[in-house]
Design goal:
Helices cover 25% and strands 32% of the residues. By secondary structure, the chain is of the alpha/beta class.
C-alpha cells in the first residue's frame, strides 16, 4: 500500500521575529488549506492512505472533515493516535511513528525549526519540507498540489529515488563525546545568557556562526557567511565565521526586511566529518536553526562536525520529471 505522512506545525511562524521584522505570516487556517491540497493531489496521483500528526489547532482533523463534507475524500486519512504536548516533542514522536508505519514519504509544514525536529528522528524516509515558518532556509516555498504529486511519485515508486533524493548535511554538536543536538542550517553561538523567546534576533550578541549551507538569497543568520562566501547544499563542506570582530564590514539580511551591518573575520571552511573544537570564553547559549537550545558555561569545550547524516530530501522537480518519464501521469481510458 502506498502511504504518506503529513506533519503540520501550528506553532511555526509565531516567534519574536514576527515582531521585530516584516516576515510573511502563514496562519493556521492557510495550513489547513495547504494540507487539503496535498491530500487531494496525493489521492489523485495514486496514494492509498495518509497519516497526519495531531496538533493543538486540529489542522489534520479540520482538513479531513472539510474534504469529507465536500465529498472529495476517497482514501483513508488517519490522525495518529498519540498524546500531544504542544512542543517539538510532538514532531519528533510523529516522525518516529510514521517511520514505523513505513510511509513512503513524510511532508513537514513549518520553518527551519520544524525541519530540524523531523531530522532528529527521521532515518531513511524521503522528506519534503514545505515553508510555513519564520526562518525558511531549509524548507521550500511550494504549492501543496505539487507537494502531493511528488510525495505520491515517491510513495508509489514511480520515480528513480536514487537520483531524485539526496542525503542532506547537518551540523552535529558534541560535548564530552556525547551528541548533544543537531542543526540543519546553522548553529549560532551567542553571549546571551537567557532563553526567553526561542529565537535569537540581536546580531550584537553573536560570537560565531557555523553553517552547513550559506547564500545571500537566504534570510537569517546563515547569510552572515553567505554574503562573504557560498556554501551549497551539495558542497562537501560547511563553514564558520567569527562575528563582531575582524576586518570585514558587511551587510546581511538577517531577518525579513532587515539589512544589518556586521563585522566579521574571514570564514573558515570545514570539510565533511572534520571535527573542530571550541572552548567557551564566556557564558552563553547556542541557537540551532534559529532556536535557542543549548546553554553553556565559560570554560566548557564543545566539538562540532558537519556530516551527511541529515534527512533524505526530495528534489521536487527532479522527482516529477523522473515520474513523468516513467508514465506517472498516464491513465487508461475510463
Amino acid at each position: 500500500m502506498s502511504t504518506i505522512g503529513i506533519i503540520a506545525n501550528p506553532a511555526s511562524g509565531k516567534d519574536i521575529r514576527r515582531l521585530v521584522s516584516h516576515a510573511t505570516v502563514v496562519d493556521n487556517n492557510e495550513k489547513v488549506n495547504i494540507v487539503k491540497r496535498i491530500i487531494l493531489a496525493a489521492q489523485g496521483a495514486g496514494v492509498e492512505k495518509i497519516y497526519i500528526m495531531p496538533d493543538t489547532f486540529l489542522i489534520g482533523y479540520k482538513a479531513k472533515e472539510d474534504l469529507i463534507a465536500s465529498r472529495e475524500l476517497n482514501i483513508p486519512v488517519e490522525i495518529l493516535d498519540m498524546d500531544i504536548k504542544g512542543s517539538i516533542k510532538d514532531t519528533i514522536l510523529a516522525t518516529e511513528i510514521m517511520e514505523k508505519l513505513v510511509v513512503g514519504c513524510i511532508i513537514a509544514l513549518g520553518g527551519d525549526g520544524t525541519s530540524r525536529a523531523v531530522a532528529k528522528s527521521i532515518t531513511c524516509t524521503p522528506l519534503i519540507s514545505v515553508s510555513t515558518g519564520t526562518n525558511n532556509v531549509y524548507p521550500e516555498l511550494l504549492e501543496g498540489t505539487v507537494v502531493g504529486m511528488a510525495a505520491a511519485a515517491i510513495s508509489t515508486q514511480t520515480c528513480d529515488i536514487g537520483n531524485t533524493c539526496r542525503r542532506d548535511k547537518r551540523i552535529e554538536v558534541y560535548k564530552e563525546e556525547v551528541l548533544m543536538d543537531i542543526a540543519l542550517v546553522d548553529c549560532v553561538i551567542s553571549k546571551q545568557t537567557y532563553i526567553g523567546s526561542k529565537a535569537i534576533w540581536k546580531a550584537e550578541d553573536i560570537k560565531k556562526v557555523i553553517v552547513s549551507r550559506a547564500h545571500p538569497a537566504s534570510i537569517g543568520f546563515s547569510t552572515i557567511v553567505g554574503v562573504k562566501m557560498l556554501v551549497g547544499q551539495d558542497d562537501d563542506f560547511g563553514a564558520s565565521i567569527d562575528v563582531n570582530k575582524g576586518d570585514n564590514n558587511l551587510v546581511a539580511p538577517i531577518a525579513a526586511g532587515t539589512m544589518k551591518r556586521i563585522q566579521v573575520n574571514e570564514p573558515i571552511i570545514h570539510p565533511l566529518d572534520e571535527i573542530f573544537e571550541m572552548k567557551m570564553e564566556y557564558k552563553g547559549i547556542m541557537a540551532l536553526d534559529g532556536e535557542r537550545e543549548l546553554p553553556f558555561k565559560e570554560g566548557e569545550i564543545f566539538r562540532f562536525k558537519i556530516t551527511r547524516n541529515g534527512p533524505f530530501r526530495v528534489n521536487i522537480k527532479s522527482t516529477l520529471e523522473s515520474a513523468q518519464l516513467n508514465g506517472f501521469f498516464m491513465r487508461n481510458k475510463a
